[in-house]
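Notes continue from the previous slide.

Worked example: a multi-chain complex. Inputs as given:
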Amino acid sequence: MPVLYRALQGFSDILPEEQPYWRFFENVASHVAELYGYQRIETPTLEETAVYLRTAGAGTDIVEKEMYTFEDRADKEGNRTSLTLRPEGTAGVVRAYLEHGLFKLPQPVKLYYMSTPIFRHDKPQAGRYREHHQFGCEALGDSDPAVDAEMISLLYQVYTELGLRDIHLQINSIGDQNCRPQYIERLREYYRPLLNECCDDCQMRFEKNPLRLLDCKEPQDQAKIAAAPKIVDFLCGPCREHFDALQHYLTLYEVPCTLNPLLVRGLDYYTRTVFEFAAGEDKLALGGGGRYDGLAEILGGNPTPGIGFGAGVERIIRAMKRQGITPPPPEKPCAFVVYLARTPELKDEVVKLVAQLRHAGIKTEMSYGDRSAKAQMKQANASGATYAVLVGANELANGFVSVRTLQGTIDEEHKQVEVKPENLIAYLTGG
Ligand code: AMP
């Protein structure tokens, strides 16, 4: 049959066979986040475009090329608001923190979001989608580098608890409003005479977002990047201290890391700490983030330090598969109820029995339609159920059902016993 409709390019269905990976990841990540004192938050998929325009900043790829932005339908006055599908997780969380007065709570406020959809009009390729999902954390209201180290350690623990090996962490400090301007000036001086040899994107970055010059992936620009002045050499006293303390705390958390003076982040609002994780030889990041002490102010709040990360769920699952990590399999049914005759009365009894078992919390299956008892037994075996519960008119009239063990030790398998319906739950649960 020809397929009439397909999911959009860069958008994916997450089919049942994939779900065990997602559940495993979500269980591990939320467990670790809560272990570190983070509480869950979810914010809307749509925000006013201004929330992202003002925070992500002009000249970033996200704002320039990747946002899904459209005009809303007109309100009663005929005004239309520009809306954007969430292109990153942090701005919405900070907006919610300000809107709901979370700054009145004891600080820092530590929040996480789980498998949150993110939309970017990227060029689709392996590991890069137009809709992907992120697990992210944000800690607002404290600039202590111990908060930075804790957050990085949290993400590292998620990766290790998933069983991932060969995880690399890179960190850097990109300074703050005191020291970064001098560095940017130096960087511009360095690039000015080289500009006509740079790629088109770098020409634009030079004007709008010079720090991102260091992020260019074009082969022609790599030698220039390697020889460029490094921001770590320009950090002011407080930024230097913060960065040193971060590294010290990371050693206390026993999180191995490398300093990468070229690491910058795609968004304008980052200050000081930036970090990125990858697995093995894979160039695609498994997660990354940084400190954004200026962001709350941009959104109209009081100056509020903050730090956060986003980790791509699809990328993490991809790394798990590459490393042969399999999630716990989905739970098999405990019971599969088979009806031995195809009469409406018996079917009623079977549906009633299935309902009772499910209400008692026992995972139960039955077959539907007009299948023979033999075909139903085949289904029962294929389902992986531990027991088949055979219900026949004569048996019921005599006050019992037959329970056949399908999965168990060699002694138990194929064992068939007669059980009174009122004792069935106890029998199936081993009581
Ligand atoms: P970013 O907000 O760009 O730092 O992204 C955070 C994390 O999300 C990255 O480290 C990746 O793991 C993941 N990610 C970013 N963009 C994509 C994408 N287009 N497709 C899949 N995963 C992505």
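Summary box: Residues 16-179+235-322 form a domain with the BirA Bifunctional Protein; domain 2 fold (CATH 3.30.930.10). Residues 145-162 form the longest helix (18 residues).
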